[in-house]
Design brief:
By secondary structure, the chain is mainly beta. It has no helices and eleven strands. The chain is 0% helix and 56% strand. The radius of gyration is 19 Å and the shape is globular.
């Protein structure tokens, strides 16, 4: 199997919608819904795509504490075509994502974040992957954002890296000091 895999490639195309049901005030609860859909455009034999379209509806919960501390919990269901790769069967699963953001700095321009991402397959013998990530992000006065994140699998599963890192660079319109835009 490894002789047919490529080192790089483009996977399935994904699009999504996200909406707010209950807007989060400066403190308190927020509620939203999202739906991600993928289309089978990647090369399946190179493990760059699914056997068909996938759908991932989620309920998005958020709570904001004083001082800019934020937590989030996403609960969802991942609908995908059943596929067997070697001795592993991949099928629909319940998904769970949680995160916390702790701001720091004189104007709260920095933040430390931790995330957990896992799922439970709905068929017998399904894998139960769990990945943890942590990192920091800095927001400059001109709107530039720079983040560095690292993490890895706590509960291993097919296709999940043992360790991974990400460097992000972005821009968001500058807002009032200490307030996210």
């Amino acid at each position: 199997l490894s002789s047919t895999l490529r080192a790089t490639g483009i996977g399935d195309v994904r699009t999504g919608l996200k909406g707010t049901i209950l807007r989060t005030p400066a403190r308190g609860f927020g509620l939203g819904l999202s739906l991600d859909v993928t289309f089978p455009t990647g090369t399946r034999s190179a493990l760059l795509g699914e056997a068909g379209a996938t759908y991932a509806p989620q309920v998005l919960l958020e709570y904001r504490f004083g001082g800019g501390i934020e937590t989030a919990l996403n609960l969802g269901y991942y609908v995908r075509p059943d596929v067997t790769v070697g001795s592993v069967t991949l099928a629909d699963s319940l998904t769970l994502r949680g995160a916390a953001r702790l701001p720091f700095g004189p104007r709260k321009q920095g933040a430390v974040m931790i995330e957990a991402d896992g799922s439970v397959g709905v068929i017998d013998g399904s894998q139960r992957p769990l990945m943890l990530r942590g990192g920091a992000r800095w927001r400059f006065a001109n709107g530039m954002l720079v983040g560095l994140y690292a993490g890895g699998a706590v509960m291993h599963a097919f296709g999940l890296p043992a360790a991974a890192g990400t460097l992000t660079v972005g821009w968001a319109p500058p807002g009032r000091p200490g307030r996210e835009v």
